[in-house]
Amino acid sequence: MYYGLTWAKIREAMCLAIPVRIVSIDGDEAETEIAGVRRRVSIVFTPEAKLGDYVLLHTGYAIGVVDEAEAEETLKLLEEIASLSEVH
Amino acid sequence: MKFIDEYQDSKLARGLAYKIAQRSTKTIRLMEFCGGHTHAILRYGIRQLVPKTVELRSGPGCPVCVTATTDLDKAIALAHLPDVIITTFGDMIRVPGSYSSLQKAKAEGADVRIVYSTIDAIEIAKANSGKSVSFIGIGFETTAPTIAASILKAQQEKIENFHVLSLNKLTPPVMKALLDSGEVKLDGIIGPGHVSVIIGSHPYKFIPRDYGVACVISGFEPLDILLCIDKLVEQIEKGEPKVEIAYPRGVKPEGNRKARQLMEKVFEIGEANWRGIGIVPQSGLKIREKYERFDADKAFSVSLKPPREPKGCRCGDVIRGAAMPLECKLFRKACTPESPVGPCMVSSEGACAAYYQYGTLENLQGF
Q: Which CATH number applies to B65-170+255-299?
């Protein structure tokens, strides 16, 4: 990659956030995990986050809780579209 | 990785691309506001996947790129002050200002440190009580709450040597400025996903209402972006522009109230200076008087020479979507990631960097 511009770096770019799983909560901080990597993050913006939830991590802060039901819905919709496209 | 891998499936992507091609009859122009989207679009070859009727333009959603040269010069001047430690997100340090860069200042002896988070900047302030630790606060609504949180933490813990140079900017006002200028005719906007996690979908309502332009908020994986483009094409074909969320696992219509509360507690809205666009009213965040002792602008005074823009650089045009990176004579010649002339080639969210990195022949010819 040119000058080390890896996808990992892009994912940490400023408008991006990655979904990480909460493994423990300690006040307004949480221990999170993604692909075996652990990171302590602030959950000051997501006080509703629970153990096992996925949160969107942006520059050290959880900015939102991933809505798993909506994620399922979107995947279903995508699969539906793709299967309809195959018919044609 | 959950919530990432499943949205990268190539078979589903082909299915979606087929559906978009079936739907699309009108020639349309869409703008991806966010630099993160620009990179994903180039990286996953989405420009080639969508039909020729759909043109994609990059917008001003790269925080480093839109930072005005005068503001950059101010950050560099701050770095040269005695007993000041500059903390900043990584991309900023390589951006050339009028006469120098933070990287050059560092080479000349200034203490400039890259941080991943404002939390790190606070820790540096705690460990260096004899010095001022100034954070260069760039970013949109996604990042502004994190900067607000750091100022509140500094106040709570009485960390008096922490300062922020607030250059934060707001998304909807600059969208309005671009639409008002009419320079680039747009049919639809790929809305920024993580800005919208914070602000929700309501602040974009003026886009279809006042300008007849479609707006669909998108996630950052290739299937998210294709789904967003499909919804945009559908709206435009039907002639029914509206605001939609194609990233409901992340974005709620009401956004994140808690984050906005903290942001509004610390910041008030004022004008901001955007590279390539100029002063846009109501598009910036200033630190409120109550927290002014953390405001680097108030704590330090620096004298600046008149700003100089790099000769021949078309970053300003690229930021407005008025030019594609390849239309700049310097692109890939005088301006490369190793030796960037303008910020769009430096930042990991800059359009020129994306076109340089993923610029296959198809990508480069595709405009």
A: 3.40.50.11740
